[in-house]
Amino acid sequence: MNVYGMTETAANTTYSDRDADLIQLSETIGRPSPHMPCRIMNEQGVECEVGEEGELQFKGEYLLLEYLNRPDATRDVYTEDGWLHTGDLGYWREDGTITLVGRVSDMFKSGGYNVYPREIENHLESHPAIEMAAVVAVPDARFQEVGAAFIVLSQAEDSVDISTIKRFCAEHLANYKVPKTMTIVDQLPVLPVGKVDKVQLKQQAVAALNATQKELV
Predict the structure, then answer these.
(1) Which domain holds residue 125?
(2) What is the pTM of this model?
(3) Nearest alpha carbon to residue 97 among 19, 160, 173
């Protein structure tokens, strides 16, 4: 069973069905608990239609009362009508389940288009030679921001190069989603909780970008 929740909700808020098939288990976080209504809102503050990506928001009796000694944070985490901002992006499926696509803080705009790093990471990780991938945004003079990918290859693979991976992305992703730079690394940096440290990766990507620009001057 898949479940989804966060510290601020005090418990899980979505659950996969007891008889969930492999598609639901692999692609969704299930459906909301009847005790914790969920809505998905777009950037204009309008509830999303099925298939439209937006921020997950919850409302119920088990939400946090406040952050300790942080009144501004408490105010900002709630909407004016009392729904909790999760900062997670997802969309409703036809069957009433939810698919997550990433974090609001991870999303970036490239040439005016919204780019969700997790979508690109999922595609990269679908390649048999790639074990893990992480994508961060870096500044770009023409498109405002572009993606920079860090890739860990499977141990059994050593013959795949960057050009092959770029072609793999170009064949299946829109141009603005294809990372402008790709770097093969032995491992990805992680935080103490086990999550990929994207702050560190972004610092590395920006530093590499700045170094390249200095060489061109």
Answers:
(1) 108-216
(2) 0.75
(3) 19
